[in-house]
Amino acid sequence: MKVSLCTLNYSPELTGIGKYNGEMCPWLSLRGDHVRVLCAPPYYPEWQVHKGYSGGWYSVSEQEGVQVTRCPLYVPKTPTTLKRLLHLASFSISSSLALFKGIFKKPEVVIVVEPTLFVVPSVLLFCKVTGAKSVLHIQDYEVDAMFGLGMGGKLSGLLSRFAFGVECWLMSKFDAVSTISLSMMDKAREKGVSDDQLIFFPNWSDTDFVSPAVDGSALRHSWGVKESEKVVLYSGNIGAKQGLELVIEAAKRYISRTEVKFFVVGAGAYVKQLQALSYDAGLTNITFKPLQAWEDVPAMLSMADVHLVIQRKGAADAVLPSKLTNILSAGGNAVVTAESDTELGRLAEQYPGIYTCVEPEDIDAFCEGLDVELGKTGTNTVARKYAEENLNKDAILSRFRENLLNLVGKEITEN
What does the angle CA 315 – CA 254 – CA 351 come to, to the nearest 5 degrees? Predict the structure, then answer.
């Protein structure tokens, strides 16, 4: 099967969409599929093109059996709404040119990952010309996320009606639409996608690599954590959609509990602002660390007593946090901020003990949840069992590949 993937994010990005794309494509290649990736140079979550890459011109390389074409784009140092739109538009133009340059390669299926919708018109046109099947894979509903977080400004009403209308029309043109949660599938139906088009393709975890069996004591020691102390960990993107001011407020309340230490691990557009808030408050119980190498992630997850998954109101069903899969796989105890009627809220109700779910942006509820989780010790067996049964990497990717083979009319037994 010949597959092309058009996406902003790809390996070697360590978090989010880039990590999943960077695992999926080599997995497909190992099974005999010919995979071509059109992506940006790595820049996320730091919002800075990584050393050794250029945002100004194209490059082509082979990574783990996958042909990777890096397309130039504009990466703002301080992303505002307008700058984000320019950022997305620049990738749309450069990746569209690269896509049509490979028109005679004739892929059988083209997958485009949302974000970004900007490249969708070019992908749909390409598929119409070549006869390739088109798949939209939704990791984030970027239109919902933008307006749900109030990024539309004074014209949000007019802009949102136009943006949602265009989004629905574009989604209806795909041969298949996949997304990562049941609530996000429901949202796709609300936007006019039929059940025949829908594919459930959740994010996964390498449950053998990320497991409760990993010993994190050496990392705890290297980070200066005493055996008697409790580690509260947030790890991932540090951006506007998370609402990480909540961690600062919680650290203020726990300042007298000297055994509780907060760690914020990651990078992103909001990291300097968050550090400034901590500094201005004179907090000595919170430490900032850069993103950790993937091989160190299991130990980092193992060393934490409580994990934090934090989002603002309005984001929970538009953006399902990818960090949660590995927390569950590690058997971690976690506090998750999400409304009760969202996917994350329903999951907590369906699997009691999997994590403590509290209302977003509510510091009292957050600290109550944190107290509950700090009182727990050992592996969260509910979380680990859920990961083993629902988040296994090979099982999820095998099902998705079967969906693709069915879409292009090939036998599922194909190597």
Answer: 45
